[in-house]
Amino acid sequence: MSMWKMSDALRHQIYKPSPGTLFHASYFAVHELPIRLSHRVRELENLPLGLSEDPSIRLVRDWYAQSFEELMSVEEPELSDEFRDMLLKNKKDDFMWEGEDSNVKRNYNRNSFVFEDDGVIIRKSNRHDEDSFAEIENSAEPDLFLNSENIVSTAENEEFEKPLGLKTYFQHAPNDIIYPKEVTDYNKSVTNILVKIKKRHDATVATLARGVQNWKQKNNYKYLNSPINQFLDRFYMSRIGIRMLIGQTIAINQQSQKNMQNDDYVGIICLHCNIKEIIRDAIDAARFACEEHFDVMEVPKVKLYCPSDLTFRYVPGHLVHMLFETLKNSLRATIEHHSKLNPGIDLDDIKYPPIKIIVAKGDEDITIKISDEGGGIPRSAVPLIWTYFYTSAEKQIKEDDLQDFHNSHKVPFMGLGVGLPHSRLYARYFSGDLKLISMEGYGTDVYLHLNRLSSSTEPLQ
Questions:
Q1: Exposure pattern of 357-381 as b/e (b: 16+ CB <10 Å)?
Q2: Which Pfam families match (predicted)?
Q3: Which of 112, 204, 314, 354 is buried deepest, with most CB atoms within 10 A?
């Protein structure tokens, strides 16, 4: 059986999209984002138990409302009837599949357009402290993470149907024509607006978490299965989707405008994420943050067991975020636990057990296991770690620290209470998961499952 090979024409369409293709992406973002933002504004205004009145919550609401207003004020380009029909005709006409028989029994899945989050592309680290790693090299064929299918077969319908109320945004835009200046100007204008919106919302997680922590202290609120926990899960999951859509639209437009071609990336999606390299970047970041926080020269080492050639499709920024949060927790727990076991000894003089990271590739998942000897978590406290009212930090984040974060985008080391639950949402966004098993008195194992199948769709809420 001959292997499928990407044609030059398809490669050109993917890596060098036409202004018309970029117009479709920008147009979708401008029309989809206000819907998502408006839902969040309404939720922020109607939170239970007076949480909506917290100044930090109102600030986040105002950011979302301002972004909604800016997107609603975007004017559509003035185009000739010919170009408008070519670019926007599928707003009113049924979409036809090229090369397919019109009698094929097909129907739209209501979640046809899958866009996914945040999208800070981590640079490939140019320094790795080899003394901090112990690695096992295994040969493995790279397996790719395929995108989900957007069309489902139906045995009942003989015709291709478009559900009522569903807009379709995809329309083939040829590469071999000259597009009017209005199209490229529209793409640039939308990109500039999205860059401004993305920067405005950079501090959303810290600001919202600060509001929740302040409200919790005033109300002595400790319920686990509360409507506020459910709201925060919905809100943060929605934020991941919004950031994904914004980041992807910005990236594909900027890559085209600056003529940057990279076979590894389509927007913020890396087609060949090297798991080992990304883990090493996360280790570097977590160890540096830990050294800075505890003011020590040396923190626990990390032993990494991962095949060097293990790759798949993912958003590197998401993976780095999840790994950084879990590693940071493991490093902190290990230092604090062993400092209690060695009273009177300087932190730099304690011999810490290493943290172990094991990566395995299965048929369905790539699983990353992070094991530490940080003393574990009491069984009664395990359910609390998935709520937004619990933090193991000894002191809460200060207002000055929050302002520093907003200005420099430097994430506070601890105290927000969102690290693990937020990381679990990142994992679940692409149909993965994050699980924790604790052995009190010894340590904790965290399992990060990354879905390799093509069955994941965006969890719209």
A1: bbbebeeebbbbbbbbbbbbbeeee
A2: BCDHK_Adom3, HATPase_c
A3: 314
**What band does 60 get if pLDDT is binned at 50, 70 and 90?**
very high
Task: Look at 11-15, 31-35, 165-169, 436-440 and tell me which has the smallest mean pLDDT.
Answer: 165-169
Give the pair of three-digit tokens for residue 284: 């570097």
Which residue in 368, 367, 363, 369 sits closest to 453, CA to CA? 363
pTM beyond 0.90: no
- 7-43 burial by CB neighbour count: b if 16+ within 10 A, else e? eeeeeebeeebbbbbbbbbbbbbbbbbbebbeebbeb
Helix axes 181-200, 227-257, angle to 10 degrees: 140
Residue ranges per domain, the chain? 8-451
Q: With the C-alpha atoms ordered 407, 325, 429, 384, is the resulting torsion angle positive or negative?
A: negative
Contact 159, 104 (CB under 8 A): no
The backbone region for 177, taken as left when phi is positive above 0, alpha when psi lies in -120 to 50, beta otherwise, is beta
What is the rounded CA–CA span in Å between residue 455 and residue 22?
26
Q: Which CATH class is domain 8-451?
A: alpha beta
| The pLDDT value given to residue 424 | 97
Assign residue 232 a region (left: φ > 0; alpha: ψ between -120 and 50; beta: otherwise). alpha
The sign of the torsion formed by the CA atoms of 67, 73, 78, 79 equals positive
Length of the chain measured in residues: 461
Tokens of 76: 């559509």
Quick check: 460 and 241 in contact, CB under 8 A? yes
Burial 145-181 (b: 16+ CB within 10 A, else e): beebeeeeeeeeeeebeeeeeeeebebebeeeeebee
Q: What is the 3-state secondary structure (H, E, C) of 231-269?
A: HHHHHHHHHHHHHHHHHHHHHHHHHHHCCCCCCCEECCE
Q: Which of 224-238, 419-433, 446-460 is predicted with the least confidence, judged by mean pLDDT?
A: 446-460
Supply the residues annotated as catalytic: 321, 325, 328-329
Residue 133 or 171, more confident: 171
Q: Measure the CA angle with vertex 36, ends 35 and 41; round to 5°.
A: 95
Helices (H), 295-359: 316-341
